[in-house]
Amino acid sequence: MADQYAHPGEDKPPTDIPAIRWEEPPEGPVLVLLDQTRLPVEEVELVCTDASALVEAIRTLAVRGAPLLGVAGAYGVALAAARGFDVDEAATALAGARPTAVNLSVGVERARAAYRAAVADSGDPQQAAAATLAAARQLHREDAEASVRMARHGLALLDELLPGGGHRVLTHCNTGALVSGGEGTAFAVALEAHRAGQLRRLWVDETRPLLQGARLTAYEAARNGMAYTLLTDNAAGSLFSAGEVDAVLVGADRIAADGSVANKVGTYPLAVLARYHHVPFIVVAPVTTLDPHTPDGASIEVEQRPGYEVTEFSAPQVQVTGAGGGVAVAPLGTQAYNPAFDVTPPELITAIVTEEGVVSPVTAEALADLYARSHQV
Ligand code: MRU
Questions:
Q1: Alpha carbon distance 111, 129 (integer Å)
Q2: Ligand 1: which of 174, 206, 302, 338 to mutate, most ligand atoms within 8 Å of CB?
Q3: Which atom, in ligand 1's list, is nearest to the CA of 66?
Q4: 305 in ligand 1 pocket by Cβ < 6 Å?
Q5: Is any atom of ligand 1 closer than 6 Å to the C-beta of 66?
Q6: 127: annotated binding-site residue?
Q7: Apex CA 203: angle with CA 200 and CA 208, to 5°?
Q8: Which residues pair with 181 in a beta bridge?
Q9: Residue 198: HSE in the Cβ half-sphere, 13 Å Cα cutoff
């Protein structure tokens, strides 16, 4: 079945423009983002000159994905410091821009701590700004390095669970270079398998309502020359029952202390399907996504998004007619249930792959161990 969907692909890097970069033109420092709301139609940059522009970019998902939100948050604090804004005010606004991905507040707090320490040390705002930027750059570098290690650990795990190779992997949402300083999380594992000649097919869930799979993962897969096929989220069940999925690889926005994983809405049903069909369900995330302060899945705050994202199509390439700026696909006034994430309980997760190693089975003790190891100084 799979081969009739072969895609020619293009042998190009994931994007010619990095998802985020810091620049210092004569007018003052700026944070330049690849505007992900415009992909795949066009590669447009968004230039943020202050934290409030970045907060807006985070809310509208111009910049998104847990690891990148952490990096963006840290640079946002650095931007406030470099431009002489109130750093605490900026940090609080940035950390609160979206509630679910813990990486955002982790990144913001790391930069804020660097700023405070430098102020206490030198009292010099310029030195404090430089120290804050250095902290953001360090987080950016660490995230890129974590990608490389997650990819290696993830492929080793796939090879161990699925001897014989030729993996057919289902993924959800977008977890590649667009969410990271490197090549991402779950997508980086699939890419590693592709480069090793071990990826037979990447099944890409379109990921309603904002189509991160169709718009972003398919874009990254095509540019990397991977064999990929796009499906509607609703088609996943039939794919499992046809025996076409060897493993599911997804990212995470927050991993609670008990191993519950918040990720893009639609992840949990995949975990249920995977369990029923005896298919490994693997979560790939950096340790910055582990949150020992959130005890369990019920304690994770799930972001609720505006209903018009469901009642209208508002991708940039479609004609604008609806009240929320998109084409209405439901009667005017229809109420919509639109959680951005759902929570998968640990018992449905085969393994959590981090840059520090693999946790399987997923238990609170094993995660606490890994967290403690990764935070040793
Ligand atoms: O709402 P988004 O697009 O920011 O959601 C992103 C996801 O759910 C990703 O799967 C998650 O952040 C992991 S990315 C490595």
A1: 10
A2: 174
A3: 12
A4: no
A5: yes
A6: no
A7: 170
A8: none
A9: 21
The tokens for 264 are: 């893009």
The reply to whether ipTM tops 0.90 is: yes
Residue 342, both tokens: 């759902």
Of the chain, the percentage scoring pLDDT greater than 90 comes to: 89
- Ligand 1 midpoint to CA 179 (Å): 8
User: What residues pair up with 343 in beta bridges, in sequence order?
Assistant: 262
- Out of 35, 246, 253, 342, which one is annotated catalytic? 253
CA of 321 to the centre of ligand 1 (A): 28
Question: Which of 36, 37, 71, 173 to probe ligand 1 with, by most ligand atoms within 8 A of CB?
Answer: 173
**215: DSSP letter:** I
Pairing of strands 312-313, 290-291: unpaired
224 DSSP β-pair partners: 11
Q: State in Å: Cα 136 to ligand 1 middle.
A: 20
Identity of the amino acid at 12:
K
Measure the CA–CA gap between 24 and 82, rounded to whole angstroms: 10
State whether the beta carbon of 349 lies less than 6 angstroms from ligand 1: no
Structure-block tokens of residue 73: 């948050």
User: Strand 281-284 and strand 247-250: pairing?
Assistant: parallel
Helix and strand counts by DSSP (H, E) for the chain: 11, 16
Answer yes or no: is pLDDT of 248 > 50. Answer: yes
Cα of 328 to ligand 1 centre, how many Å? Answer: 25
Mean pLDDT to the nearest integer, 277-299: 98
| pLDDT tens sequence across 28-43 | 999 999 999 999 989 9
Question: Against a cut of 0.90, is the pTM above it?
Answer: yes
Atom of ligand 1 nearest to the CA of 341: 8
253 is known as an active-site residue: yes
Residue 120 φ then ψ, to 5°: -65, -35
Return the closest-CA partner of residue 70 out of 36, 106, 97, 110. Answer: 106
Distance in angstroms (rounded) separating the CA atoms of residues 120 and 157: 46
